[in-house]
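Q: May I have one protein plus its fold?
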Amino acid sequence: MFKGLLKSRVLWYLGRYRYFRGDIHGARECFERMITIRPSALGGYVLLASCNIELQRYNEAVPPLQEALQAEPDLAVAHGYLGIAF
């Protein structure tokens, strides 16, 4: 469990680093791997959706946001990104 948590945390930091450096495709890959390793990490779904929105892949942004909202219906940031995606 700790190993998966550590890997997901490293991917979260690496994904954010890549995102803010302008490597949206690289960030997207990190967040996809992150949620594969730790599906309960809702931030990964939101950040993956954010990458898809940045890349104008609006249809691809919706499923991760729906996944996050299924787990946490009051997650305001997911609702905000969902509004952008539609």
Observations:
- The chain is about 80% helix and 0% strand.
- Helices lie at 2-20, 24-37, 42-54, 58-71, 76-85.
